[in-house]
Design brief:
Shape: globular
Oligomer: single chain
Strand content: 25-35%
Radius of gyration: 28 Å
Length: about 575
Amino acid sequence: AFVLHLRDRATSCLMARILLLAATTAAWVCQAHCRQQSTAEEVHAMDESSLLQQPGQKGNKPHVIKLRRETVPIYRRGKIASFKTSYSGLINLGTPPQEFRVVFDTGSGNVVIPAIECQTDSCKVHKRYNMRASTTSLAIHEDGKEIVNDEPSEQLTIGFGTGEVTGEFVRDRICLQDAAQEQDGDLQGLGGDIQLPGEDLEVRAHGPPCVDMHILAAVEMSSQPFKSFLFDGILGLGLETLAVTPKFSTIPSLARAGQLGWQSFGIFLTHGDEGEESEIAFGGPDMRRLREELSWTPVIQSDMGYWLVKIVAVRIDGRTLDICKDGSCKGVVDSGTSHLGVPSPADTEFAETLTQSAQDYLDCRLMPSPEVQIEVPGKNISLNSHTLMRRLPLREGVTVGSAKGVEVKTNNSNETGPVVAPDTVSPRHPVPGVGLPSGHDNGTEVRRFCRPRMMRVAMPEPLGPKLFILGEPVLHQYYTAFDMARKRVGFGLINNEWSRKDPASLSNSRGSLPSGVESLLFQQRIKLSKSTHKACQHVDETLDDVAFVQVSVRITLRATRQASVNA
């Protein structure tokens, strides 16, 4: 009986294991079958928390490119009054590769590189693309057809917010530069790293993404702003419809070629004061760069091609401004714009409210200022003085920004009267006795003001008239992710050196001047009795506000130069 009992127990255990194995196998088969049926649904399902919580594809990891922060001094009256900045990375074009430094611009849709044929000063100071030196190049029409014999070629002129480029169509091979090596450090987000299930966030190991695509070889580039910067061209990252045709759009072209796992990218911008580098991640955002999960807001009017989001409300120091109360405000998220663009006439109210006497501050980013809140669906974007204010105090009467800002003139313009530059307004609520030195009556002392990094925007419908440009001040405060497949933008508080500082250590700091501007605070106002003829006066028109948001496109025909088709 005892032996039989053991045998019965063994048999029972064996049967149980067989049944369990059969059930597990059936479940696995069912799961695999169900997964095949639901794959398409999963791909298109909206995950509101993060792109990185979606199932990833093995080997498709973000490709990270380090961005160089370039700072160009702006001189006024012989002194450095401000700086204009840009962020650029490296790409290779052609075979053998020709290296170019480009701005990755979400406000435009095409790749623009100066051509060797361009003879304007703004082209000559940069590297220029030699199509004839590339064995993979081909001169084409807008529709991608090869230019043959003496066919007239087409030229495209793109008007940016603060510049203009005219280019001709070329097809060639583009490669994003090799991903930078991972840096050691404690870049921890809230609750630890957030990453793909079962995968880490190391960069791609099988080489840089490359694709044969259509570009614009620039034959003319305006002096402002291209001449003063060290970068060579622009790589547009707007939606596909902002490009000339889909084959001119970089992210979809890379995805179609199997070079990106996701049609998405993330931008990490930093001031670089602590030696910290900015970067752009292709194929998905890098969650190490966030202090919170991404909050997503949908793109509106996506057929226009911009990363355009609805703005629910705008507040300054808790007070809701009237401009967006009718629900018609919109904002373009633009990595190529150095300032916060504010629609006219609200720009004057912004400037007056945020402008303050500099007092004894040497770095206006450290000075307490009213908080600006821009509410979009799903997120309140809060901007403080560190990202919103110019670093240097500006003396009274000194202007470093454009009075016109980003403007498209129309015959139906309702604006009348002179345009006021944001840098020239006085504080709405000046502090009594502050900024007025005791000797100001003798004309030898100057007042200094801390002013916001903002520019005027005057755009007609359908983009305007109540259009904000969410440029660097927003991207310095928030890591921003762009999902082209689902047409949405994600915002999350940025995880950089500044954000990890103890606020108490900054509360009593007045900052220091950057190299080269030690004499800024000791400028004096001098009255000259001898008049100078206007024709002899030198006017420095270099501005510190830069906008690469694409605002106009024009196609023309010209007699073609002898096309060179390389076998």
